[in-house]
Amino acid sequence: MLIHYYMTRPLEKAIHAITQETTQISEGHFEGQVPQIGPIEFQRLADQFNYMTGKLNESFQKLRSAEVSRKELVANVSHDLRTPMASIQAFVEALQDDVIQDKATFARYLQTIRLETGRLDGLIQELFKLSQLDAGGTEFVPERYHVDHLLLDSLQSLAFQLEEKQLQIDIDLPDRLPPVAIMPQEMKRVLSNILDNAIRHSPVGGTILIQAKQLSAPYVQLNIQDQGQGMEEADSNKIFDRFYRADPSRTRTSGGAGLGLAIAKSIVELHGGTIGVESQTAIESRGSRFWFTLPIDK
């Protein structure tokens, strides 16, 4: 009996430890670890059990993070939809009640309704694109394309905004730049989103510098430098997060809904590239420099 007791005691301890940990897991606690005691087979079982617990904990944390992101998404979408909807409703009610008799004011009200409707449409399109990228619904089918054509097409679509703020575009391209393998429409969206951000934060009459260079790796890097106020380091670390705005008040003058740069990051990563930003607020009119890489066509 003594021999049996001393031989089975380590087995009982190992089984008891695993049983306790399974009870903790069933209650939603994944932080525990099973001690590696007993025979070698039980130690291997404990090691595998701890590995499984770690994976469960990692998955559970991702689920928690996804739930928090979902709640933030709903709250932010509600916020960004509420403002234009309230504005449209107020102007429509004023027009319906025949409050506005002046023709010029009537036209101005209609123009405001049109602009607010455009804002709503833009937000819906951005949400659709972001959900499409998250779901993997955008297939990567690259084609051979030249960087100068990409820049020209993107700048043409923003000609009105550039003229309105009297901004100058300074482009620095090397004489020989290899073509890149991209989806042109998607990359035009990336460049337009970054340029739109630069235009909003640039002073009237300022200059936006666009540079391109070939890296040692098979990539071409594009840099977009504005002359805005720059941003704090905490903001630059979160600027590509969804719905993030450096302006905590989220006023209409602060720009879009905060999805443009998140979409840009997803598209660049779909191409196998990287994207980032550098900013120095200490130097007056230094602004921010956004950059991203494009794969060279082989």
From TrEMBL:
Superkingdom to which the source organism belongs: Bacteria
Annotated SUPFAM superfamilies: ATPase domain of HSP90 chaperone/DNA topoisomerase II/histidine kinase, Homodimeric domain of signal transducing histidine kinase
Uppermost EC category: transferase
Coiled-coil stretches noted in the UniProt entry, renumbered to this chain: none
Gene3D superfamilies per record: 1.10.287.130, 6.10.340.10, Histidine kinase-like ATPase, C-terminal domain
Pfam families, alphabetized: HATPase_c, HisKA
PANTHER family (alphabetical): HISTIDINE KINASE 1, TWO-COMPONENT HISTIDINE KINASE
Name of protein: histidine kinase
Species lineage: Bacteria, Bacillati, Bacillota, Bacilli, Bacillales
